[in-house]
Amino acid sequence: GAVVSQHPSWVICKSGTSVKIECRSLDFQATTMFWYRQFPKQSLMLMATSNEGSKATYEQGVEKDKFLINHASLTLSTLTVTSAHPEDSSFYICSAGASRISTDTQYFGPGTRLTVL
Amino acid sequence: GESVGLHLPTLSVQEGDNSIINCAYSNSASDYFIWYKQESGKGPQFIIDIRSNMDKRQGQRVTVLLNKTVKHLSLQIAATQPGDSAVYFCAERRSSGGYQKVTFGTGTKLQVIP
């Protein structure tokens, strides 16, 4: 089956620093990638949708300048949390789909645990 | 507003019994529904899906039922095993702004009692 990886799996950083999270599709080309955030004991909340080669579409309430998304190739998308603060501590999960039109098949990564001190 | 929600936040089931996890959705435009299983510290794992033109779909030990009249979705797990212990999310897909978005419900924690 299709595999999506994330790196790092966990990261601890100081307040004010920036953190980059990578999402890779290992054995398929991901036309569309999705970034989710999940707080403890809560559901996944979609942050943004990105298509390769174009700007990401952010959900309402998600700051574009704070959560920078780059989908430069068909196998890699990155999420950069800029000037991170303790309230940004969360579990960040990406998913990848092979079709721009259909999300019938959406493969999830293992997630990245971010802790901001 | 539009939402996908669950009736029971926690469900405890004896090993070997059947489990039923319920989900209510409010967006009648949703055309596709998915159940995911999430173990602690991991990403969601696809279990089973169903399109809006169906009312039942079966997989291995799992069955999803869709009642569009009352906007209700359920996941049935037969002969529940300790390995089934996890949080289960229903999700709905709908078109929005040219993309198809998947919205997750609040989740139900399934605890299997050995």
Describe, in plain words, how this protein is organized in 3D.
The complex is a heterodimer of chains A (117) and B (114). The mean pLDDT of chain A is 90. Chain A has strands at 4-7, 10-13, 19-25, 32-38, 44-51, 57-58, 67-73, 76-81, 90-97, 106-108, 112-116. In chain A, 0% of the residues lie in helices and 52% in strands. Chain A is built from no helices and 11 strands. Chain A is mainly β. The radius of gyration of chain A is 13 Å and the shape is globular. In chain A, strands 2, 4, 5, 6, 9, 10 and 11 form a 7-stranded mixed β-sheet that branches. In chain A, strands 1-3-8-7 form a 4-stranded antiparallel β-sheet, with no helix packed on it. Chain B is mainly β. Chain B contains no helices and 11 strands. In chain B, strands 2, 4, 5, 9, 10 and 11 form a 6-stranded mixed β-sheet that branches. In chain B, strands 1-3-8-7-6 form a 5-stranded antiparallel β-sheet, with no helix packed on it. In chain B, a hairpin with a 3-residue loop joins strand 6 and strand 7 (62-67). The chains are: A mainly beta (117), B mainly beta (114). The A-B interface holds A 4, 6, 32, 34, 36, 42-46, 49, 57, 91, 93, 95, 101-104, 106-111, 113 and B 32, 36, 41-46, 49, 89, 93, 97, 99-107.
Whole-number radius of gyration of chain B?
14 Å
- Strand fraction band of chain B? over 45%
Q: What Rg of chain A, in angstroms, do the CA atoms define?
A: 13 Å
Mean pLDDT of chain A: 90
The quaternary organization reads as heterodimer
SS-based class of chain B:
mainly beta
Unreliable spans of chain A are none
Question: Which bin fits the share of residues in helices of chain A?
Answer: under 10%
Number of strands of chain B: 11
- If interface size is counted as residues with C-beta under 8 Å from the partner's C-beta, which chains form the largest one? A-B, 26 and 21 residues
Mean pLDDT of chain B: 89
Topology order of chain A in helix (H) and strand (E) letters: EEEEEEEEEEE
Q: What is the overall shape of chain A? A: globular
Largest sheet of chain A: 7 strands, mixed
N- and C-termini, Cα separation of chain A: 37 Å
Largest sheet of chain B: 6 strands, mixed
H/E element sequence of chain B: EEEEEEEEEEE
Uncertain spans of chain B, ≥5 residues at pLDDT below 50? none
